[in-house]
Each structure stands twice: as C-alpha cells, then as structure tokens.
Amino acid sequence: MRRVKTVSSTLTRLGNTALKRKNSDAGDDSAKIKRPQTKKTARPTLWDMPELVLQSIISYIEPADILSIATMFNPEQKAYFSKEINYGRLVSDSLSWVVSIRDFDQALERIQTLPPRQRALPLIRLGGHVYQLEPGDRSVAMALFCAETRLHHAHSPSLAPQLRAIENASTFCHLLIGQVTPERCLREVAAGYGVTSPSRLRELERLIVNTLMGEEGWAGKNGRQMAAKYGICDESNITLLEQYIFTEMCRDDIGETATCEEIARRYGICSPKGREQLEAYRVRQFIGRKAQQGADCKELAKRYEITSTAARQCLEYYAVEGVLGERSAIRRQLPDAGLEVWGNHPSHNGFN
Fold first, then answer.
1. Does residue 39 sit within a domain?
2. DSSP-derived secondary structure for 161-209
3. Do 143 and 214 share a domain, yes or no?
C-alpha cells in the first residue's frame, strides 16, 4: 500500500492530463486518427543521455516495480495509453503487440517474466507514456520513475528526487561529484548509483572530464588538484584532463619562453603520458618552427626541457624534412605518442 501512495499523486496528475487530451479529441474525428500536435517547449532533451547514466538508473528496476505499475493504471488511462501506442508514438517496435486494454495488461505480465536485461528495454519504452515526454526522452523517464519507487522502498527517499531531477549528462555528473569529499571518493559515491565495474568507473570519470570541459573549460586549472577534487583515478582520464588543461592554456596564455617543466609544474601535469604529450604539443605549436629555421635540436630540447623520446623525434623530424602544418605526413612517420586523443572532442581539432 505504501508503494501506491508513493506514486499515486504522480499518476493522478498524469491521468488527468491524459483524459484532458482524450476529451479534447472527442469533438473531432480527425484527432482520433492523427497524433496530437503539441507546442514545442524548451524542455531539455534526453536523447543524448549517455548509456552509462541510463543503465545505472535502470539497475534499480525490479519485478515488484512492474507489478505496482500494472495495478495503478485505471481503465481510462489504459485506454489512452493503448490508443497512443496504436498511433505509432512508440519509438521502438519492442511492444508493437500491445494494441488494446487487454493486451496492455498482458504486456506487463509478459515483461515481468523476462530476465532483467531483456525486460529493461520494453519496460522503459512502455513506461515512457507515463511522463508524456518526447520520444527521445521516454526511456530515461521510465527508468527514473522506477528508480524513484525502488529507492523509496529501499529506504533511500532522499535519493529519489535527485534522480528524478536528472535532465542530462551534466546534471548526473554534478549530482555525483557534489557528493565527493576527502573522506568519500567518487568510486564510493558511484557505487550508490550502480556504477561499480572498472570499465564503467572509467567511463564515468571520462564523462565527468568531458562534461566539465564543455561547461566551463579546464584552462587555468591544476591537473593534480582537479583529479583529486573530482576523484579521477584512471590514468587515461587523468591524461585527458591534463591535455585539456595545457592545450587551452598554451593557445593563449603561455608564452614561447616557458619550458615544458615550468608548464607542467604550474598546471599540475604529473602523469608520464601527460608530460609526453605536453612536450609533443609544444614542439608542434612553435618549437618545431625554430628547428626548421636551423636551430640545433639538442639545444632546443635542453632549452625547453624536452625529455620524452617521442617529442624529441618530432623535433628532429621538423629539423630534417618536416613542414609545420603537414600533420598527416608527420603522424604517419612518428611513433604513437597519443597526440590525437583529445582530437575527438568538439573543442579540439588537433594542433592549431
């Protein structure tokens, strides 16, 4: 009974909305066979919600949640939702066999018998009608709905409204990093959201690094301090964070006289791979031009504290036969220094 009380107000409100639309269609036969045209709103879209976020929320769905949903719909709501499915509003054919009130009930029973991995998709597709959202929003909407009821009955009511408030990847990231403290690392926080495997933790860290980069940038930040603050532990993600920092700063705020050691110390570039890529970036940015103009490579390496083999080879290539800006030819002949890792991010297009 407590479960019904948890979501009854939500369903009542949604049911009233559904009936209003249903009644408004009653006087016009054409409205009964066409998808209702609704005015576009500024509501954030969840179409690009990362799979990691969605899966971590879906992990809270259990058979008991499905059963409670089945018992809460009244006949009018079932009729409305079945009509919507008939109109083709379902973005997937996972539930194309749900075409009537009778089949609606059977659908829930059928989903309940599926194993967790198989029942998640049809359940969230069907449940998307609950929140009356755009097609791209529905899968996340139902996951949030089920997660809310699951968490409430798991005695975590404070987490339910937080999950319900998630609108995109950014809000999900901020929800997690807002709970990171010196005593509680990101991995401990993520465990409360079903993110526990090493691969998913790496994915979460990368999501945080890229999300915060897109919001305010990493320019001027200290890599070591930011990694500690946000709980970034994976070496590849620390390297990515460091890349964002030095590429943003080197473009505008770091003069040509600064050595790689000075930059690394100032901006907390501590990982071996990050330092190697910093040196290679500086060579491509301007030091290579000095080598083209006849400066001695050994002296340049000493002057700018270039220590990595990859960066030194890059410098020598410019001195011997390189043409600054011919990136494809250089990349074919140089050992892999990971120089294009950040090139996939929309804010970076390689060396400029």
1. no
2. HHHHT--SHHHHHHHHHTT-BTTB-HHHHHHTTT--SHHHHHHHHHHHH
3. no
- Residue 72 sits at φ, ψ, to 5 deg, of -90, -25
What does the alpha-carbon distance between residue 262 and residue 264 come to, in Å, rounded to a whole number? 5
User: Are 231 and 177 within 8 A, CB to CB?
Assistant: yes
Phi, psi of 181 (to 5 degrees): -135, 170
Backbone conformation region of residue 295, classed left if phi is above 0, alpha if psi is from -120 to 50, else beta: beta
pTM of the model: 0.55
The alpha-helical segments, DSSP class H, found in 26-179 are: 51-58, 63-72, 75-86, 101-112, 116-131, 138-153, 159-164, 169-177
Q: Which domain holds residue 89?
A: 2-20+48-166
- Torsion, Cα of 48, 53, 54, 60 (10° steps): -160
Residue 351 covered by a domain: no
What's the pLDDT tens digit per position in 126-166? 544 444 444 444 444 555 555 555 555 554 556 656 666 66
Which tokens sit at 202?
Answer: 């790496």
- Among 122, 121, 145, residue whose Cα is nearest residue 133: 145
The single residue listed with the structure tokens 């500086």 is: 282
Same domain as 204, residue 132 = no
Q: Name the residue among 350, 337, 332, 352 with its Cα closest to residue 272.
A: 337
Residues 332 and 222 in one domain: yes
Does residue 193 belong to any structural domain of this protein? no
Please write the tens of the pLDDT for every residue from 72-122.
Answer: 556 665 665 555 545 444 334 444 444 454 555 666 666 667 665 555 555
How would you write 321-338 as a 3-class SS string?
A: CCCCCCHHHHHHHCCCCC
